[in-house]
Here is the input.
Amino acid sequence: MIQEDFSIGIFDSGVGGTSIWKEINQLLPMESTLYLSDSKNAPYGTKSKEEIIALAIKNTEYLLNKNCKIIVVACNTATTNAIAYLRAHYKVPFIGIEPAIKPAALQTKTNTIGILATKGTLNSALFEKTSQKLNSKIQIIEQIGAGLVALIENGKLESEEMTHLLQSYLEPMISEQIDCLVLGCTHYPYLIPQIRKILGSKIHIIDSGQAVAKQTQKVLSEANLLKKAAATSKSSQLFLINSNKSILTKLLADGEHKKSLQIIETDF
Ligand code: DGL
Here is the structure.
């Protein structure tokens, strides 16, 4: 039987989902978490739907074998391609992440929003369905962030190559008068300083991290699986990565998190 002191399982194609882990840990510090960074198989965004489903199954089964009480798919590409399959085949609750185009559509004044995401997300049926539900006056400028995830996984966040890629993706959107940019990949929040430099201060940058943390809290609470706040001192935060752990360690090294984290290189 699932118990409240089991961990929250989280997976991503790599280190990007830690942007979601940070939101979850901030909102639910009493919870233990087990994060899988499937960096050996990154990027997912260029893979077929069948390949993404197979990787999502591998990660899910690993987390379930470690007794996770809920699984957060901290990857837009895996959510948009595989979450329906996962929900149909496993009993545990799943929380997914999708690009925040609905909040952006409510916020835009120019009726033009930009979205930067992987090919796998932008080509998915789920993304197509969500975009079709928006007010028809809203124009969405879609851009595949080819190469961005690989540069982040290799620790090249502040490289010239990154700046050039971001300029080539974002400048055409600025010309189209976007006033909101949706970050449709959990790796991209780590690029906000560089993106901000290109966009200037007037264009809103929107991601779904906080919404995912709140939804995780809501689902756990409804299932009576939230850990009691008093148990915070007993929580553990474990990160497994199946490739070199240096970039993961670097991204997690900010702020007060650092001391209580365990980061382990292992295959899964
Ligand atoms: N973090 C994943 C996402 O949110 C990156 C996908 C990839 O590996 O290409 O889509």
User: Anything to note?
Assistant: The mean pLDDT is 95. The chain has eleven helices and ten strands. The longest strand covers residues 7-12. The domain at 101-207 is CATH 3.40.50.1860 (Rossmann fold).
